[in-house]
Design a protein that fits this description.
The protein has 468 residues and is an all-alpha fold. It has helices spanning 5-8, 62-67, 98-101, 123-131, 147-153, 160-174, 187-194, 202-209, 217-224, 232-237, 240-263, 265-275, 278-291, 303-313, 317-331, 341-357, 359-367, 372-375, 377-381, 390-403, 408-418, 420-425, 429-433, 441-452, 457-465. Residues 26-60, 75-119, 258-294 are annotated as: Disordered.
């Protein structure tokens, strides 16, 4: 498949063909569409004057785009007009998400953070909450086009916002056409667009490979041989050698980011020392370090599973490298930083959300001494990629990349809701939770849209920012 105009806006270099071959992709069943307000895409102050040959790469304001995400899928009123773009980053600690309230009257149809949360005693109630909120299909500037035409043809008249919103709704309503094994010609390009990621050149990827073993190489080799070992589709398509190369290249990239930050510290320290006393210089040094931004991440165990779907879906290692590096450094950098604080915050949020949407199940697990830290760590870290089958993981990732990877927290609660009866009836719930049932992406999405409507705004703001 040739480089598409919208995907081509992300980079002008040709992909690097390695091991993968593309396969035919019949249609899959369309899922039930829900509320159609999307994460705010690119902000272009001069979007109308954009040159379409080729179009420029989207540059998304991360915090605003995250807040204006799939949380509005649970809104009680339909969305009737295009989103308004703001050149300002929206404060992430607002008590009410601007997207979830968009298109509503002053009377909110769902629970406020200071109101008694609804009690949900069965997954059918959650599914019904999503079903009865089916809105009128919104009218987008590109709504008459298929997802393939939006990606291949790019935005019409420079309307990047309309093209991205239409593409997101198409993914929710129709899904990305793929074969039974999950293979699709265009999935990786849709992911790159949603992740706002230009494709790395083959030369850049090769230069990282030719640097040899990184400091994390031993850890990588200890992980790769056991990546999705029970999945025959992955083992047939992706070699361990390609997974090692990708992870080692990412490890070099993270190492370079650390070195760049380290080299910028001495001048800040010397400047602070000249201005302050000894006590003041320590404080000034701490401030100087904080001004450099958060510490870059490093390779952690579990990244092999998180990288696996990219290699399976991509048509080259260079494409998989670009998408994977963007995910871990921009969408969930706290998952690979320090003591993986972002993962632990996500686990705490799983417990909080479950306590709101299903108090009985939450108390049952608490009484058994089962917190999310015990059973959900792999699911949070890998965005549910640890739960087979792989084709369903790809479909769930279509949803997460379109609306925000932070919704993985809600997707995990949705899986708990789907196995609720089994957990409550088992004398040993820890055995049930040790291995989640096979993933059903459409069911998880439907339940997620119902659960979203029950989450207070302040808790949702924590979900949005937990991985940053």
């Amino acid at each position: 498949m040739a480089m598409t105009p919208l995907a081509g806006a992300l980079g002008s270099h040709s992909p690097l063909p390695y091991f993968v071959t593309d396969m035919a992709s019949p249609s899959r069943e369309p899922m039930v569409p829900s509320q159609s307000a999307f994460r705010h895409p690119t902000t272009h102050q001069n979007a109308n004057a954009a040159n379409l040959q080729p179009p420029p790469s989207p540059r998304t304001h991360r915090a605003l785009r995250r807040l204006q995400s799939a949380h509005n899928l649970g809104a009680s009123r339909p969305f009737h007009q295009p989103s308004l773009l703001s050149p300002q980053r929206h404060p992430v600690n607002d008590s009410v998400s601007p997207t979830r309230d968009r298109g509503r009257t002053s009377h909110r149809g769902r629970a406020n953070s200071d109101a008694t949360p609804p009690r949900v005693n069965h997954m059918g109630v959650i599914a019904a909450a999503a079903k009865h909120l089916r809105p009128v299909k919104p009218s987008f500037s590109h709504g008459h086009l298929t997802l393939q035409k939006i990606i291949r043809g790019g935005p019409k008249d420079g309307d990047f916002a309309g093209a991205l919103e239409s593409a997101r709704f198409k993914v929710l309503e129709e899904g990305i056409k793929s074969a039974e094994n999950g293979m699709s010609r265009r999935r990786i390009y849709v992911w790159l667009v949603f992740l706002d990621t230009p494709m790395s050149s083959a030369d850049e990827y090769l230069s990282l490979i030719h640097r040899g073993a990184s400091a994390a190489y031993t850890k990588i080799r200890n992980d790769t041989f056991r990546t999705l070992t029970t999945d025959p589709l992955f083992r047939r398509r992706v070699s361990e050698a390609s997974l090692i190369r990708l992870l080692n290249a990412v490890a070099w990239k993270l190492h370079d980011a650390k070195e760049d930050q380290r080299q910028s510290r001495p001048s800040s320290r010397q400047s602070s020392h000249r201005r302050e006393s000894l006590a003041g210089s320590v404080s000034g040094h701490s401030q100087a370090r904080s001004n450099l931004g958060p510490e870059p991440g490093t390779y952690v165990q579990g990244m092999n599973v998180l990288a696996a779907p990219f290699l399976y879906a991509a048509r080259s290692e260079a494409e998989a490298f670009a998408a994977f590096h963007s995910l871990i450094t921009r969408e969930c950098p706290a998952y690979i930083r320090g003591a993986m604080d972002g993962v632990h915050r996500g686990l705490a949020l799983v417990d909080k959300v479950l306590a709101i949407v299903d108090p009985k199940l939450s108390m049952h697990l608490t009484a058994k001494g089962l917190s999310a830290e015990i059973y959900a760590f792999p699911s949070v870290l890998t965005l549910c990629a640890c739960t087979p089958p792989l084709p369903e993981v790809l479909r769930l990732w279509d949803f997460l990349f379109a609306y925000g990877t932070h919704l993985n927290i809600v997707c995990i609660v949705a899986q708990l809701a789907a196995m609720r009866s089994q957990i409550l009836e088992s004398p040993s719930p820890n055995k049930v939770l040790r291995s989640f049932p096979p993933l059903n992406a459409e069911l998880v999405q439907r339940l997620t849209m119902g659960i979203i409507n029950m989450i207070p705004d302040d808790l949702y703001a924590e979900i949005v920012t937990h991985a940053l």
